[in-house]
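User: Hey, my collaborator sent me this sequence without any context and asked if I could get a structure. I don't really work with proteins. Can you help?
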Amino acid sequence: MTRRDLVVACVSAALTLSAVSLMSARADVLPSTLFEWSTLTPQANQTGEVRRVVQKPTATLQELEIHITTLRPGEESHPPHQHVNEEILIVKEGQVEALVNGELKRGGPGSLIFQASNQLHNIKNVGSTPATYHVINWKVR
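Assistant: No problem. I've predicted the 3D structure and written it out in structure-token form, which is a compact way to encode the shape of the chain:
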């Protein structure tokens, strides 16, 4: 075996291992998916319950995290807080009050709430029935 043959073999092996590594990393990326409501198991918590949908990287995002929260009447998700990642909340049922741009805003079924990066936010159930909302949160690469 010549030095040239050894170099070609090493380069070929390195390229093959790189391709396999990339394909393995791609396998962990969230593909197109349908999440069926009936399969999402609610987990009780101090304020109501949560259904964890997904928390995975996608082809364009470092992480996509989706969960569905149900708050009992009078409960809030958490004290006002902020984080770098942005999120959208979609109210499924009930009446909520959300801290948005330093103001409390009310919304009901079908309302959308966008929480920008590093803005204080939270949400509270201000109705007399449970309030359920979907949270879509993402981190960019």
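In plain terms: The mean pLDDT is 89. You can pass these tokens on to your collaborator as they are.
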